[in-house]
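Example 326.
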Amino acid sequence: MDYIIDVEDLRKVYSGNIEALKGINLKIRKGEIYGFLGPNGAGKTTTVKILTTIIKPTSGTAYISGYHIIKNQKEVRKIIGLVPQDLTVDDDLTGMENLVLQSSFYNIKREEARKKAIDLLELVDLKDAADRLVSTYSGGMRKRLDLIVGLIHDPDILFLDEPTLGLDVQTRTRMWEYIELLRKEFDKTIFITTHYLEEAEKLCDRIGIIDHGKIVVEGSPDELKSSVDFDLVELDVDNLQEAMKILVNFDAETRENKIIIKIRDSEKNVLPILKTLTDKSINIKRIHIEKPSLNSVFLKYTGREMREGESEEDIMKTMRAIRRAR
Ligand SMILES: Nc1ncnc2c1ncn2[C@@H]1O[C@H](COP(=O)(O)OP(=O)(O)OP(=O)(O)O)[C@@H](O)[C@H]1O
Ligand SMILES: [Mg+2]
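Predicted structure in complex with adenosine-5'-triphosphate:
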C-alpha cells in the first residue's frame, strides 16, 4: 500500500536540547482527513514544519507522495499547501493582491493567478471582499483567506495548523464546511492540527493524539472512543476535601477545584455516589456526565484532560434524576 504521507521515526531536537519529537510514525492515505491532536507544546507544529520542508528533522525519514522531504524538497513544495498557525496574509494588501502575490512564488502567470484567485475567493464566500484591504477583514475572514492562500497552486495535500484557533463557534463550523468541501469536491488530502476535540471528531477520518513528542494512540474517532470503557463524572461541590474523603473507595481525583470520577455505566452507577455525598450533607452545585468521548480518550492515553464546553442538557437530566432519587 502506498501512502501519500509516509513518515518513519521522525525526531527533532531543537537547540537547547529540547526534544520536540521523539520518534513519530505516520501513514496517511490519499483523500484522508487526518487530525493531529495534542495539547500545547506536544509537537504538532514541529511535525507540520518538517513535513512541509520549513525545518529539517534531526533524524528519521518522511515521504510526501513518494518524494523525500529533504532530497526532493522542490517536488514536495509543489504538491503541498500550508496554512500555518500564525496568520500570514499581509494586512496592507487586498485579499486579491495577497493571492496574486502568493502565486508569484509559484511562477503562476498573473492572468491565470487572478482567475484562480476569483474561484478560490468564491469558494470561501470572500468574492465581495476581494478588493478590500485585509486590515478591514474580521478574524474569520482572515482565516478563510489564509486557507485559500495555501491552495493557490492547487496542491494535492493541504497542511492546516490550527485553522480555527480562536474563532467563534459559528465561524469554526463554516471553516469545517470549507475543509470538508476541499476533500469532497477537490480530492485533497488534509492534515489538520487542532485543540478542538469536537472539530476533530466531526471532520477527521483518523486521528493521532500526540503528547510530549510521541503519538500515544491513533484510529478513527469511533475506534478511539470505543477503547474507553468508562464515563467521566464531574462534580462541583461545596466542600471538596470532605467530599474526597467520602469518595475514597472510588476512582476519584480533583482537578481545578472539581472532582472527576471514572465509572462504568454511569446511568446506573452515578446515583449511589451522589446519594453517598448528599447523605453526608455535601452540597452538590453542578454535575456533568460525559460518555466516552475524545476527551476521555485523551485522558486515558495522556493522563490529562483536554476538554471544551459541556452539555447543559446532560446536567439538567442528572439533576432531575437526583431529585427523583431523594
Ligand atoms: N524554534 C524552537 N526552538 C526551541 N524549541 C522549540 C522551537 N519550536 C518549538 N519548540 C519547542 O518544541 C516543543 C513542541 O513545540 P510545537 O510548536 O511543535 O508544539 P505544538 O504542539 O504545535 O503546540 P501548540 O499547540 O502550542 O501550537 C515545545 O516544547 C516547544 O517549546
Ligand atoms: Mg502549534
